Amino acid sequence: QVQLVESGGGLVQAGGSLRLSCKASGSIASINAMGWYRQAPGKQRDLVATITSGGITNYADSVQGRFTISRDNAKNTAYLQMNSLKPEDTAVYYCNANIKSAQWGLTFDWWGQGTQVTVSS
């Protein structure tokens, strides 16, 4: 079994910063891409940023230049540094990881439970 646990969400004023963390644990052989998605009330879940195991990143246009995704492969952890936050960034942020199970040898997408980010104006 694999678990993704997010942390670092909270309430911040517009223009502020937050750093989210996502740690993967369990029966892990390897982790391919990791990513962050967000879902605002009444809206679909959207891509925020992704990072490959080799460090290649991809960002949604709405966060380009403000957010930075990174990862520590030794710690099985991904991060999302969010700067210059705007009220429209308010959402539940979910971590996603494509993980090969050490137990089964199969690869699946796993999701964290989500962490709330609220940006006040």
List the helices and strands and how they pair.
Elements: E1 2-7, E2 10-13, E3 18-26, E4 28-39, E5 46-51, E6 57-59, E7 67-72, E8 77-82, E9 91-101, E10 107-111, E11 115-120
Parallel strand pairs: 2-11
Antiparallel strand pairs: 1-3, 3-8, 4-5, 4-9, 5-6, 7-8, 9-10, 9-11
Describe the structure.
There is one protein chain. This protein has 121 residues and is mainly β. 0% of the residues lie in helices and 61% in strands. The strands form two sheets. Strands 2, 4, 5, 6, 9, 10 and 11 form a seven-stranded mixed beta sheet that branches. Strands 1-3-8-7 form a four-stranded antiparallel beta sheet, with no helix packed on it. A hairpin with a 6-residue loop joins strand 4 (28-39) and strand 5. The protein is elongated. It starts with a strand and ends with a strand. The model has no long low-confidence stretch (mean pLDDT 97).
- Write down how many β-strands occur, each being a DSSP E stretch of 2 or more residues: 11
End-to-end C-alpha gap: 41 Å
Structural class determined from secondary elements: mainly beta
Largest beta-sheet details: 7 strands, mixed
Helix content: under 10%
Radius of gyration: 14 Å
Residue stretches low in confidence (pLDDT < 50, at least 5 long) are: none
- Strand coverage percent: over 45%
Per the principal axes of the C-alpha atoms, what is the gross shape?
elongated
Mean pLDDT: 97
Number of helix segments? 0
Give the structure's gist in a few sentences.
Helices cover 0% and strands 61% of the residues.
Descriptive keywords:
121 residues, elongated, 11 strands, mainly beta, seven-stranded mixed β-sheet, single chain, four-stranded antiparallel β-sheet
